[in-house]
Amino acid sequence: MIVPGALTGKVAVVTGASRGIGRGVALALADQGATVYVTGRTVTPGVAPLPGTVGETAAEVDRRGGKGLAVQVDHADDAQVAALFKQVQREQGRLDLLVNNAIALPASMTDRVGFWEKPLANWEMIDVGLRSNFTAAWHAAQIMVPQGTGLIVALSGYVGVTYTYDVIFGTCKAATDRMARDMAIELKAHNVASLSLWQGFTYTERAQENLKTVPGMASQLNSAVGSSVEFPGRVIAALAADPDIIKRTGGTFINAELAQDYDVTDIDGRTIPSLRAERGAPIWTPV
């Protein structure tokens, strides 16, 4: 449920928010009044293969009722990540929410060939997608633990237990779920929550391109199960506003199921279905 102002005064960092799910999360948080640091590499329109820049997302956050702050960050560069969190601490004095969304997605990830036929360089999904999650959470925890509150959300998916596209992609997401759980064990005593969320098919800019170019993808997708890029953000906004969020810490959750718990629908009013029966169930429950 959208509650204007529910996140007023709350400070969030959303990584990889130039476009895609990260952008959608930033906008959903804006709808409830949050201050959102929008990170990503793209600052100049037209430079990247897909549309979107950190500045454009931040400006839209402002228009939607939040406060958007664009910060160019390459999440493969530890120094840039450290500078980001120092900026948040200096400017806001607090951090309430980290959404780890950034991931490198090589073009060949969706190629229907064996892993041995893809470049070894595709390991970058682990570098920016898993290691980058840890690095951002490491910095976020140093702000959240002293203040005794906070939420770290890792974006994952059914791919964590069901083969989808690529060996490295599945490995990254399975590890993401486990890392979020183990962080929760160490953070719980400090009232800081950590959890991972499974997305279903989301109509990102890249996904829409894949529907046109990846053989067989369009025919395999029931359009009724796909969500807008803002749907995951609506769920995250509900989690961030939940005073009892610590009860969920350590769990891996299916977005569509949490949406029902929090009375959240997609931007067009649709109820997004859970694909638990078709694609698998999360392993980790709250700690």
Comma- or semicolon-separated keywords:
globular, Rossmann fold, 287 residues, 40% helix, 7-stranded parallel β-sheet, alpha/beta
What report would you give on this structure?
The chain is an alpha/beta fold and 287 residues long. The chain has one domain (11-279): Rossmann fold (3-Layer(aba) Sandwich), CATH 3.40.50.720. It has ten helices and seven strands. It has a seven-stranded parallel sheet, with helices on both faces. α8 packs across α9. 47% of the residues are buried.
Task: Give the secondary structure arrangement, pairings included.
Layout: E1 11-14, H1 20-30, E2 35-40, H2 54-63, E3 67-72, H3 78-92, E4 97-100, H4 124-147, E5 150-157, H5 167-187, E6 192-199, H6 205-213, H7 217-220, H8 230-240, E7 252-254, H9 255-261, H10 276-279
Parallel strand pairs: 1-2, 1-4, 2-3, 4-5, 5-6, 6-7
Helix pairs in contact: 1-2, 1-8, 3-4, 4-5, 8-9
Separate helix tally = 10
Radius of gyration: 17 Å
Helix content: 40-55%
CATH class identity: Alpha Beta
Major sheet, described briefly? 7 strands, parallel
Q: Kindly report the CATH topology.
A: Rossmann fold
**Mean pLDDT across residues:** 93
Output the structural class.
alpha/beta
Order of helices and strands: EHEHEHEHEHEHHHEHH
Gap from first CA to last CA: 26 Å
Q: Tell me the total number of β-strands.
A: 7
CATH architecture: 3-Layer(aba) Sandwich
User: What number of structural domains do the residues give?
Assistant: 1
Strand order of the largest sheet: 3-2-1-4-5-6-7
What sort of overall outline do the alpha carbons produce when their principal axes are compared? globular
Query: CATH superfamily, please?
Result: NAD(P)-binding Rossmann-like Domain
Extract low-pLDDT stretches: none
Share of residues in strands:
5-15%
